[in-house]
Amino acid sequence: MRIGMNSLPGGLDQFDDNAPEPDADPEPDPDPESESSPAARAEAGGDGKDRPPASPGQRIATAGVALVLAVGLVAGLWSVPSVRTVLLQSFTRQQAPFTELYFTDTPRFDGGTLIVHVAVNAHGTGAAPLRLKMTLESRGGKVLNTRTVGLKPKDGKAVPVVARFPKTSDTARVRVALVGHAQSLHYTFVAPRNPSGTS
Fold first, then answer.
1. Which candidate, 9, 73, 124, 187, has a CA 20 to 30 Å from the CA of 116?
2. What is the spatial distance between Cα 137 and Cα 199, in angstroms, rounded to a whole number?
3. What is the DSSP letter of 11?
């Protein structure tokens, strides 16, 4: 109820409890149907469809698919040598590059042939071709035969080399050297015993 005021002489105001209230625009009642309309729901940020939360089985399946994709991606990248090298350098402590040179079997005579088995294993030195120089010497140090063999190293994997030389009666030593590197090997054959007991 609104209280009206009438002015009295002398500047005094008189309150009139019976004065009619001015017309006021009533506030419209909310329309429940309009609030649930698709347009209202779109304005509120929803599409009107209540989506139930994913079940544990769906979450496990999604995680499994993601895991399989990640493993497949890593496996595919690992199969590329340059990528594998970069990944190894990124996630492992790297040692200084070096190359191994060693006999894989004792040099031996097989009939009229001398067979020499060696291997080269390069670690982090790249894939540049290497050369092996093999030399047969007499007991006095005279060079009897020489052969140079080229090979392409595989990082971290031994590359075998087998060399065959014709047998000579005075072969006493086999030397193997990695050309341009410090690595070298030698093998000395035991001298045959003299039946008379003298040497």
1. 124
2. 19
3. G
- 91's enclosing H/E stretch is helix 81-91
Sign of CA dihedral 100, 104, 106, 108: negative
Highest mean pLDDT among 22-26, 70-74, 142-146 belongs to: 142-146
Give the orientation angle of helix 81-91 with respect to helix 56-78, to 10 degrees. 110
Q: Match 């419209």 to its residue by tokens.
A: 28
Structure tokens at 49: 């469809």
Q: How far apart are CA 135 and CA 173, in angstroms?
A: 8
E strand segments, the chain: 4-7, 13-16, 98-103, 108-110, 113-123, 130-137, 143-151, 159-166, 173-178, 184-188
Instruction: State pTM to two decimals.
Output: 0.48
Residue 71 parent element (H or E): helix 56-78
Q: Report in angstroms the alpha-carbon separations of 70 from 63, 66, 73, 77, 84.
A: 11, 6, 5, 11, 16
| pLDDT surpasses 80 at 87 | no
Measured distance CA(183)–CA(179) in Å, rounded: 8
**Sheet with 184-188: strands ordered across:** 143-151, 130-137, 173-178, 184-188
* pLDDT per position as a tens digit, 156-179: 889 999 999 998 888 899 999 999
108-110 vs 98-103, strand pairing mode: unpaired
As a whole number of angstroms, the distance between CA 120 and CA 111 comes to 27
